[in-house]
Amino acid sequence: AETMAADQAPLEFGGPLGAAALVLLLPTTMFHLILAASSGPARLLGPPPYLPGLEELWSPWALLLLLTWLGLQAALYLLPARKVAEGMELKDKNRLRYPINGFQALVLTALLVGLGVSAGLPLGALSKMLLPLAFATTLTCFIFSLLLYVRSLLAPASALAPGGNSGNPIYDFFLGRELNPRIGSFDFKYFCELRPGLIGWVLINLALLMQEAELRGTPSLAMWLVNGFQLLYVGDALWYEEAVLTTMDIIHDGLGFMLAFGDLAWVPFTYSLQAQFLLYHPQSLELPMALFICFINAIGYYIFRGANSQKNTFRKNPSDPSVAGLATIPTATGRQLLVSGWWGMVRHPNYLGDLIMALAWSLPCGVSHLLPYFYLLYFTALLVHREARDEQQCLQKYGRAWKEYCQRVPYRIVPYVY
Ligand SMILES: NC(=O)C1=CN([C@@H]2O[C@H](COP(=O)(O)OP(=O)(O)OC[C@H]3O[C@@H](n4cnc5c(N)ncnc54)[C@H](OP(=O)(O)O)[C@@H]3O)[C@@H](O)[C@H]2O)C=CC1
Ligand SMILES: CC(C)CCC[C@@H](C)[C@H]1CC=C2C3=C(CC[C@@]21C)[C@@]1(C)CC[C@H](O)C[C@@H]1CC3
Asked: Where are the transmembrane segments (predicted)?
């Protein structure tokens, strides 16, 4: 990895140049995908079908809708929570507290949307506003990240993320300087990571399903599958919300453009690509094939949930009967590494399950186009890169014990392949 100075964390994402490229490339890709999904040829590669003018991109109504959405999710975040969890220990030895009420926010949002729809709210019309909504979200993310950057210049050194304070403004703007920007108890990163984007994603999917029902009389089986699989994924993430407190996004990365844009824009507008594609390119899916795809999703989910729960249980209580019998490697930190069970199969079994689910989300879209497979391709690249970042951090944390783990479990994500 490139380095700035000997005492600074190695630069990631190709340093300032890579960060600058990503700041431009991520929004451009997102707009390309939205435009391509609604176009006849639906080409992933090649130029966009057309270049939209400002009058098509900018709408004050879209901005108002976005701000209302963010306001609603912020209000739901502030409601009393079933539990308040403590995060990992910080540099100053303190621990932050986080409300565990994401699933409650999903249910309350569903109730509000249900009420709205039964009162005549034309939810399907949202599918025609994706372009201006994505534009308003992108602008908001740029402004938000800029404000976060400026605010971080006033933060004490102990509040900074290990990675995002290289001194290069573009790199730091992208990666995020401050680790846990908060106003009072409102934690911006934790809020962004799970709520507006993930719940927004299922809402957009639902709008596309309703629009399809309006256009064709009933939603297609393929649309039901995509909606069902992705709702399960989002519901699972919010149900197990506490697990996000140990991810590198919360522990290691600052809140900058990468996470702000990733969470608020990239997730809802690109993760809903399969449903966008299906609205404009209906697919006939036979029942046996649909059942086969459900089976693939179930296998993926079984591995994903099994691996994540096994690690979470082990980290919370290593003597829990469900994990007490597993083989482990002791480390100098006092923590242990699992070396049997899911974590003895590959070093990232949860990524394997996630990738199998990603395949199941694309299959209902048929094999005539590459576009609906974008998520699978992007996600493979994201997880390979994420695995390498995590590996680096684990090597630093656990040293020799990590090397031993790598020797005993040589494959990273796919057994005997990678
Ligand atoms: N859909 C999407 O866009 C994305 C989804 N994800 C999903 O989110 C979930 C979380 O992923 P992610 O945050 O990357 O990290 P993981 O949940 O895979 O956690 C990695 C951490 O687990 C601990 N660990 C690693 N190996 C072992 C072991 N053998 N025994 C015990 N602990 C171990 C280490 O932390 P420590 O030892 O400190 O506990 C390590 O840093 C995954 O299921 C992933 O697929 C992630 C990113 C994007
Ligand atoms: C495209 C950019 C370079 C990076 C954007 C990254 C974000 C989209 C992802 C970073 C980590 C994420 C996690 C999830 C969603 C995607 C982002 C925000 C989950 C919430 C998905 C559901 C899982 O159960 C937990 C994940 C935690 C990490």
From this structure: 17-38, 58-79, 100-123, 129-150, 250-267, 287-304, 324-343, 355-379
Nearest bound ligand to CA 252? 1
For residue 308, which atom of ligand 2 is closest to its CA? 24
Mutate to test the pocket of ligand 1, among 246, 357, 362 (most ligand atoms within 8 A of CB): 246
Ligand closest to 408 (CA) is 1
Atom 18, ligand 2: residue with shortest CA distance? 263
Q: Which ligand is nearest to the CA of 303?
A: 1
Give the global pTM: 0.94
With contact defined as beta carbons under 8 Å apart, do 280 and 42 qualify? yes
Confidence class of residue 6 from pLDDT cuts 50, 70 and 90? very low
* pLDDT for 71: 97
Q: What is the pLDDT of residues 351-375, one digit of tens each?
A: 999 999 999 999 999 999 999 999 9
Determine whether the shortest distance from the Cβ of 311 to ligand 1 is under 6 A: yes
Residue nearest to atom 5 of ligand 1 (CA): 354
Does residue 217 come out as left (phi exceeding 0), alpha (psi in the -120 to 50 range) or beta? left
